[in-house]
Amino acid sequence: MGKKWRWGVILDAGSSGTRLHIYRWKDPEKARKVASEEDLRSLPKLVTEKKWTKKIRPGVSTFGDNAEDVGPAHLQQLIDHALKIIPEDKVQDTPIFLMATAGMRLLPQFQQSALTREICSYLQRTTRFSLPDCNLHIQVIKGETEGLYGWIASNYLLGGFDSPDEHQHGKGHHTYGFLDMGGASAQIAFAPNATEAEKHADDLKLLRLRTLNGSPSEYKVFTATWLGFGVNQARAAYVENLEDRYANADAELPDPCLPKGLRTTLGGTTVDDRQPGTPTLIGTGHFDECLRLTYPLLGKDKPCEHNPCLLNGQHVPAIDFNVNHFIGVSEYWHTTHGVFGGKGDMAYDFATYQQRVKDYCGQDWSQIQSKISSKHEKDPKNAQEACFKASWLINVLHEGIGVPRIGLEKLPTINVTKGALEHAKEKGFLDPFKPVDKIDGIEVSWTLGKMVLYAAGQVPPATRDDQYPVGFGSNVDGTPHDFQFAGSSWRTPNRHGNHTLNDADDDWDLDADDILDKAKSKSTTGFFAFLLILILFLYFFRKRDRRMRLYSRVNSALRRQRRPSKGGGGGGGVRGVRGVRGLSGLATKIFGGRPSGGTYERVLEEGDADHFELSGGDASDDNEYSDSSDGSGSSTRRFGLSSGLATPQVVDHHHHHHYHHGLASPTVSALDRSGLVVRTDSRERLMLPPYFAQSGVGRRSRAASPTRLKSPLMTPLDET
Q1: How does pLDDT run across 418-429, given as a tens digit for each residue?
Q2: How far is 30 from 19, CA to CA, in rounded Å?
Q3: By CB neighbour count within 10 A (0-12 exposed, 13-18 middle, 19+ buried), where does 696 fall?
Q4: Helix (H) or strand (E) holding 488
Q5: What pLDDT, on a 0 to 100 scale, did the predictor assign at position 465?
Q6: Which element (helix H / strand E) includes 690?
Q7: Where would I find the beta strands (DSSP E) of 588-691?
Q8: Tens digits of per-residue pLDDT, 278-297?
Q9: Please, how many CA atoms are within 13 Å of residue 569, restricted to the half-sphere of its CB?
Q10: Cα–Cα distance between 493 and 653 in angstroms, integer?
C-alpha cells in the first residue's frame, strides 16, 4: 500500500458481539505536502471498506467467568482477519484498541478487570500490533465517552468540522447532535446553543482536535448515557413488569407488543402451544397499548435534582431544536428501516412511521411468517421483536428526548443560511431527527470517532506555542486532570520506539549504487560536486547508523572507480587515486570515523619484530578503546574503534560481551582485518628503542586522532 499510509484497528466489544473495524489514512506529515488549501483546513481523511469489518457473537462479556479463553476462543479470529488486510510491514506501527461498552459495564468490577488484563496480555503476547499502554488501548469505556466518539464521527462525516460556513444552523451553530441506542444502553451527545452552553458550562466536555495544517479547534459538547435503556435491557424490564402485573393470573400473559397469535417464552423463544405451569407470552397486537405500557420505563417520574432532566431523572441541558439537528444510529436506524422502512426513505416522518407500525403489529403472526418465508422480511427474531422496539424508540425519541413529531406537530423554524440550506437539503439533514446507517458510504460508528481523534493527534501543531494535546476532558482551561489523550503523537516513532521530529526516513531511503549510476552520465567535476552536496545533505537528514551504512556503500563504489595510469603521462593516474582518497577522507570526517580497510592509509613498519614486543602494561585504562564520549557503557558498542586501530592482546572485561558479536577479539592479532601489519599508538603498550622515543614516534595524537608521525625509517606505500 506504500509508505505514506497509516493504519488503525479498533474492536467494538458490545453486549451482543465484538466487531472489528479497520481504518486507513495518509501519514499527516506526507499528506500536508500535497494537500489543497481546503484539505489543509480539514481533519485527516480516513477511509474504510466493508470487507475490513467483521463481527462475531457472542460478546466479550460472556467470558466473565473464564477470562483466559477470551483470546484464543474469541479474539483470535478477528486478529486473523485484520492481518489479511493490513500490510505485514505496517503491523508493528498499527495501533490496536479494544473498547468495551454496555455489556461489560454490567459485569462486576473484578470481572471487568480480569478480562481487560487478559485481553491486553493476549494481544501483546500473540500479535505485533502497537499496544504500548494497556490502560489506554484496552478499556471499558463510559457511555459518555462512547457518545462523544459518536458525535465526532457524525460531524466528521457530515462536514460540520471542516466547512462550518456550509453548516450554519443559526445562532452560530454548525454541528449536529448524535443519538445511539444499542442492546444495553443509549447515548446522546450535542453542542448546546450559546445560552445553554454558558449556563451549563460545568456539564460540558472540552474536545480538542487539530486540522491538517496544524491549527487547533475546540468544541464544548454535552454527553450523557442511560445504562439499561438499550432495546434488550428495556425489553427485559418490560417483561418483568408484565409478570408483576399478572402475578395472580393464569400462566399465559397477554403481550400487546407481540404480533397477534405469537407465543414465546419470557426469554423470547417461540413456542407452538401453551406450556402448562410455565409462564408464556401471547401476542395481542395492540400497539397503542404497547406504547402505554412501555412509557413507564422512561423513568420520567424520577426526581430531577438538577433541572432540566430528560430520562430517568438525569440532567441534560435544554435542547434547542431550531439549531440542534440529530442523527440516530444503530437501533434508531434498524428499527425504523428494518421491518418498517420503505425503500428510499430520506427522513423520519412520525405519522407515516407510526401508521406502518400499527399495520404491521395488527397482523396475525401467521401472515408475518409467510412474508418471512418469502424473504420479504428480516429473520424471525427481528420480526417478533419489531413492535416492542418501535414502541420503545417512539417513546424515547418523543416523550423522553422531546424530538418534535414530524407529520403531527409544528416543526421549529429552520433558521439557516442559503448555502447551508442547499447543502442540508442535498444531505437530507434539516429535520430535527434523521436515522442513518452510512454517510457517503462510510458507516457511522463511534469507533470512527475514536480513530479520527487518534489521526488528528498525529498532526504536528502549526506553532511551537500550541502545546495543548488532542483529546478531551473537563471543560476547564489548560489540560484538565481527567484529560483523555488521543493515544497518538505528532512525533513519528523511530524503530527504537522513541519519537523524532519530522522523521523523513521513508522519503530518504536511497541506495548508494543508484546514486552513482545516475551520476556516471555527468562529467567528473559534476560527479564530485553532486556527491559532495549529497553527502552534506544526507548528513543532516539521516540517523548516524544509516549514515554509516550509506558511507560504506559509497566508499566501496568509489574504490571500484579508481583507475591509476598504466604508463607515462606524468603520474596522472596517481593523482586520480589521491583525489578519490581525499574525497574519502572528507566523507569520513562528515560521516564519522569507521574502521575499515579503506578508511585510513596503512603503512608497513620496517625493523625487527622484537622492536614491537608488548610490555606488561596495565590493560584497564578506562574506555581507552571506546568511541563513547562520556565513558558510559551504553556508547561502547564497538571495541577499540575510536582510533581505527586494533591493539594486540588487550582484554577489556567491560566489553567482554561484544566479543560474541564479532566486534573484537580478546586477543587481536598484529594483522588487522585487511591483512596489513599495523602499529599501535599506545606508548603504555610498546617498548620502543630510544631513538624512536626521542623522535616522538609512537605518541598518541590529540583527541585520539588516528593521525601518526611518520618514522624516519618508514616510507608510505603510495609514495614509493
Answers
A1: 444 344 444 446
A2: 31
A3: exposed
A4: none
A5: 80
A6: helix 690-695
A7: none
A8: 889 999 999 999 999 999 99
A9: 10
A10: 35
- Number of neighbouring beta carbons within 10 Å of residue 651: 14
Write the single-letter amino acid at 557: A
If you count them, how many residues does the chain have?
720
Helix H, strand E, coil C: the string for 382-420 is HHHHHHHHHHHHHHHHHHHHCCCCECCECCCCCCCCHHH
Q: Domain 1-141 maps to which CATH number in 3.30.420.40, 3.40.50.300, 3.90.180.10, 1.10.8.50?
A: 3.30.420.40
Closest CA to 348 of 438, 439, 444, 434: 434
Q: Of 656, 702, 701, 647, which is closest to residue 678 (Cα–Cα)?
A: 647
89: phi > 0 → left, psi -120 to 50 → alpha, else beta; which? Answer: alpha
Q: Which long-range contacts (CB under 8 A, 24 or more apart) does 296-302 make?
A: 296/241, 297/234, 297/237, 297/238, 297/241, 297/392, 297/395, 298/395, 298/396, 298/399, 298/400, 300/399, 300/400
Burial bucket for residue 692 (CB in 10 Å: 0-12, 13-18, 19+)? middle
68-79 pLDDT, tens digit per residue, is 999 999 999 999
Domain ranges of the chain: 1-141, 231-322+330-414, 512-591, 600-720
Q: What is the pLDDT of residue 369?
A: 87
The answer to whether the CB of 547 falls within 8 A of the CB of 503 is no
| Residue 218 annotated to the active site | no
Helix (H, G, I), strand (E, B) or coil at 496: coil
Peptide bond into 689 cis (omega under 30): no
More reliable by pLDDT, 625 or 407: 407
User: Quick one: three-class SS letters along 625-649?
Assistant: CCCCCCCCHHHCCCCCCCCCCCCEC
The single residue of 144, 146, 196, 624 carrying the catalytic annotation is 146
SS3 content of the chain, % helix, strand, coil (to 5): 40, 15, 45
First-to-last C-alpha distance (Å) of the chain: 58
**Among 43, 45, 323, CA closest to 175:** 323
Rounded CA separation 208/161 (Å): 12
Q: Where are any strands of DSSP class E within 460-587?
A: 471-474, 484-485, 492-493, 499-500
Grid coordinates 502545546 are at which residue? 467
Residue numbers in the known binding site are 183-187
Distance in angstroms (rounded) separating the CA atoms of residues 140 and 162 = 30
CB 92, CB 129: distance < 8 Å = yes
Element (H, E) at 243: helix 231-245
Tell me phi and psi for residue 142, to 5 degrees: -70, 155
How far apart CA 719 and CA 196 sit, in angstroms, is: 90
Confidence class for position 677, pLDDT limits 50, 70, 90: very low
The neighbour count for residue 572, using CB atoms within 10 Å, is 12
Residue 249's CB is within 10 A of a number of other CB atoms, namely 11
C-alpha 336/C-alpha 350 separation (Å) is 10
Q: Is the peptide bond before 308 cis (omega within 30 degrees of 0)?
A: yes
Residue 677 is given by DSSP the state: B
Q: Measured between alpha carbons, how far is 447 from 459 in angstroms, rounded to an integer? A: 19
List the one residue out of 225, 84, 79, 216 whose CA is nearest residue 145.
225
Provide the grid cell at 68: 483466559
Mean pLDDT of the chain: 75
The binding site for ATP comprises 183-187
Closest C-alpha among 386, 400, 18 to residue 235: 386
Burial of 7 (0-12, 13-18, 19+ CB in 10 A): buried
CATH of domain 231-322+330-414: 3.30.420.150
pTM of the model: 0.68
Residue spans of beta strands (DSSP E) within 185-312 = 185-190, 205-210, 216-227, 252-255, 263-265, 280-283
C-alpha cell at 435: 436515522
